[in-house]
Design brief:
189 residues, alpha+beta, 3-stranded antiparallel sheet, 7 helices, 15% strand, elongated
Length: 189
């Protein structure tokens, strides 16, 4: 019995975290339907008791009292405007590869509700910045920051960059970056 109660409360918390926000509250009927869809038995009294238990535990669940009470997550680790700012910074960064940008945006979207995550995905897709193909940049920056934090001396070797625009067989542009020593890095758009 205790295990099913714990599962019900955890699933209720997951539902509220992933599917609700101030613009998309859930009614008790919505919550019961979700829990029953997951094979978890729930009635109105258990939903009331479980949401009160989460609130007593310090979870910020907002209850809008009406004929049909509505519930949504009040605050999250990051507010939506903060996530938009971080998503924009990642998506428009010249030094983060397209693949790594996509991974980071996906992680940021997990910190938002479903509806806000969809908006963040659309927002990130608007960035048309040329991105490097080189995945090592992410780790190079980490090494530089670690060295600086450890008060170690770092050394850079500078190159002259030249950009060439070449199209593939289908006419799509491929971006190449050639360094002075004839090494080639691929860029995606």
């Amino acid at each position: 019995m205790q295990n099913s109660t714990n599962m019900r409360i955890l699933e209720l918390l997951r539902f509220l975290y992933e599917r609700t926000d101030e613009n998309h509250p859930a009614t008790v009927s919505d919550i019961i339907a979700h829990l029953n869809g997951k094979g978890i038995q729930a009635v109105r009294q258990t939903v009331y008791a479980d949401t009160n238990a989460l609130i007593d535990a310090g979870i910020d669940i907002v209850v809008v009292k009406s004929t049909q009470n509505q519930y949504f997550m009040g605050s999250r680790l990051f507010e939506y405007p903060e996530l938009k700012m971080l998503t924009d910074a990642v998506a428009s960064s010249k030094i983060i590869s397209a693949k790594k940008s996509e991974e980071l945006v996906q992680k940021l979207c997990r910190l938002a509700g479903t509806y806000q995550a969809e908006q963040l995905q659309k927002f990130a897709a608007l960035s048309s910045r040329v991105k490097p193909y080189n995945e090592k940049v992410y780790y190079i920056i980490d090494n530089i920051q670690t060295a600086i934090g450890n008060h170690q001396q770092i050394r850079f070797q500078y190159y002259e960059w030249q950009y060439l625009l070449i199209k593939d067989q289908r006419g799509r542009p491929l971006y190449f970056n050639t360094e002075a020593d004839d090494r080639i890095d691929f860029f995606t758009r």
